[in-house]
Amino acid sequence: MSKIRTRFAPSPTGFLHIGSLRTALYSYLLAQKNGGDFILRLEDTDMKRFVEGASEAIYNGLKWAGIKYSEGPDVGGDFGPYVQSQRLEIYKKYALELVDKGLAYYCFCDSKTLEEMRQEQTAKKQAPKYDRRCLKLSKEEIAQKLSDNTPFVIRMKMPTDRVVEIDDLVWGKVSYNTNDLDDQVLLKSDGYPTYHLAVVVDDHLMKISHVTRTEEWLPSTPKHILLYEYFGWEAPKWAHLPLLLNTDRTKMSKRKGDVAVEDYIKKGYLPEAMINYLAFLGWNPGTEKEIYSMEELIKDFDLKKIHKAGAVFDIEKLDYLNGYYIRQKSLDELMKLCKSFLAKEWEAKGEEYIKKVIALEQERLKKLSDISEAIEFFFADELKYEPELLIWKKLTAEQIKKNLEEVSEQLEKIPEKNWVNDSLEEAMITYIKAKELKTGDYLWPMRVALTGRKASPSPFDVAEVLGKEESLKRIKFAMNLL
RNA sequence: GCCGCCAUCGUCUAACGGUUAGGACGCCAGGUUCUCAUCCUGGUAAUCGGGGUUCGAUUCCCCGUGGCGGUACCA
Q1: Would A87-241 and A387-481 be classified into the same CATH topology?
Q2: Is A237 in contact with A33 (CB distance < 8 Å)?
Q3: Is A295 helix (H, G, I), strand (E, B) or coil?
Q4: What share of chain A is helix, strand, coil (3-state, %, to 5)?
Q5: For residues A450 and A463, is the Cβ–Cβ distance under 8 A?
Q6: Which of A30, A151, A212, A353 has the most CB atoms at less than 10 Å from its CB?
Q7: pLDDT at A122
Q8: Is the minimum distance from the CB of A125 to strand B below 7 Å?
């Protein structure tokens, strides 16, 4: 069997769709698994949707995710150009070849004519379909119109009464009757090819062995199969993938949530988490292992285990995985990752300080973007919180104030050089135990005094990072609130 | 309308025709020297409906129902 070559062929519409990323991932995994090639091709054949600089979003997204392509617009390769708008002559040549063979024909109908035709058919409850009026044109009429520069498209001629069977690696055998298929436009009047022509020509020329794309393409696959037949080319293997869905089970789209990879990068999702999560949306290894690195995915990936039903994109599980991967990071790595989420003025505190602070919050983060809000109290000159927050259970303000006074006295005794969480904890716990007091009566107000929050890391950890002076200052401040 | 596809806990998903229908997320409860988080333990929750086939259907077949996709000079 010849070498496996898969491709990711997105339209540069301005951003990389999260669903596209998963399609790219599966295509990449399929190629890597079999020691094949994975290439990137830009399908920019719709001039109306042209977006300046849109290809960058695709390059960046793939790079972020760790999906590497060996050929593509920005890396070159033997089968270029890898941008369809740069291959117009190629498509034209092949479209004309089909016209010569009598398998495609010129059509001079304008959009108004077509629209009327469709409306009439819909009114009669018929399937909207081109009525082939231009197929009846004589050679002379065609020549005349062409020399008059009448705008034209080239349409594919559909055979009648033929059943085309797709043998799909995911869906099995699916059949369509050509009578239900339209005479698809192959070459548009602006000289650009439609998707159908371009994808077939390019996949053939670029020696793609497996066409991987989402389910929405299944119904147009018979057209593509026929095109391969018309050209006399061997068709690739098909693998249609299940769709990614919104919570309401419709095709995942903007307006119903974030769909751009960029959005997730900005929120501080890790590529490891995203890849792991995306891989499991429509596939699983058949074991109970659910934490997967890219390398492990390559090893265990199998098209046969992809299933057909669409999968809802569930942010809760992504969050879980993201938190998991954040916890796996070394402190230095995490520091680097968090950098862009930290306030500039915090840098004055120094790298070591920030590092200690981040260490305390690591296990609490779900997204990197959580870091800013989570640690701001470490940098505040004065904490803002309701005094009632200092009150533990049924104690009175008087008692809390007295307890804080005791805490303060005990902490005072600890020398600067012993100001680390273990000694702090030992000192406080010893004191509390000796007097047969309740830890919560002391530690809760102490913690709130240091953090101003109802939820935070332990008071001893926070105190260590804050330092003796600042810690005592915050406790005094709390006492004054009561 | 027409064509096609799909259907297991709320979500992602396991289950050669024979399992107490399993796991993960979420949620709930308990434990882990104050809170939160982490971690550990336990719990909650599903085979769309109706017919077949079979000794036995989540699994195979048919019919419903529901959902989704396609039906463009968009991809």
Answers
A1: no
A2: no
A3: helix
A4: 55, 10, 35
A5: yes
A6: A212
A7: 85
A8: yes
Q: Which residue has the tokens 């540069």?
A: A12
Specify the pLDDT at position A1: 59
CATH topology of domain A87-241: Glutamyl-tRNA Synthetase; domain 3 (3.90.800)
> How is residue A51 written in tokens?
């977006």
* Nearby residues of A277 by Cβ (< 8 Å), 6 or more positions away: A317, A318, A321
State yes or no: pLDDT of A437 exceeds 90: no
For strand B, list residues 268-287 of chain A whose Cβ lies within 7 Å of it. 280-282, 284, 286
Residues 315-334 of A with CB under 7 A from strand B: 316-317, 319-320, 323-324, 327
Question: For residue A407, how many C-alpha atoms fall within 13 Å in the half-sphere facing its CB?
Answer: 33
Average pLDDT over residues A32-60: 94
Complex ipTM more than 0.85, yes or no? yes
pLDDT, mean of residues A60-65: 98
Instruction: Respond yes or no on whether the N-terminal peptide bond of residue A81 is cis (omega within 30° of 0).
Output: yes
Query: CA–CA separation, A144 vs A328, rounded Å?
Result: 71
Does CATH place domain A387-481 in 1.10.10.350? yes
Return the pLDDT at A251.
Answer: 86
Cβ neighbours of residue A197 under 8 Å, at least 6 residues apart?
A: A91, A94, A95, A186, A187, A227
Average the pLDDT over each of A10-19, A114-123, A314-323 and give the range with the smallest value. Answer: A114-123
Q: How far apart are CA A424 and CA A405, in angstroms?
A: 16
The residues, ordered by sequence, that sit 6+ positions from A271 with a Cβ below 8 Å of its Cβ are A64, A65, A66
Distance A141 CA to B33 C1' (A): 94
Residue A95: partners with Cβ closer than 8 Å, 6 or more residues away: A104, A154, A186, A187, A193, A197
* pLDDT reported for residue A435: 87
A149 strand B contact, CB < 7 Å: no
SS3 label, residue A311: strand
Task: Say what the pTM is.
Answer: 0.94
pLDDT of residue A352: 93
- Which CATH fold topology does A5-84+244-312 show? Rossmann fold (3.40.50)
pLDDT at res. A126:
80
The pLDDT, as a whole number, for residue A280 is: 97
- Model confidence over A389-413: pLDDT tens digits? 999 988 899 999 999 999 999 999 9
Q: Which residues pair with A193 in a beta bridge?
A: A187
- Looking across all nucleic acid strands, the nucleotide with the smallest C1' to CA distance from residue A193 is B73
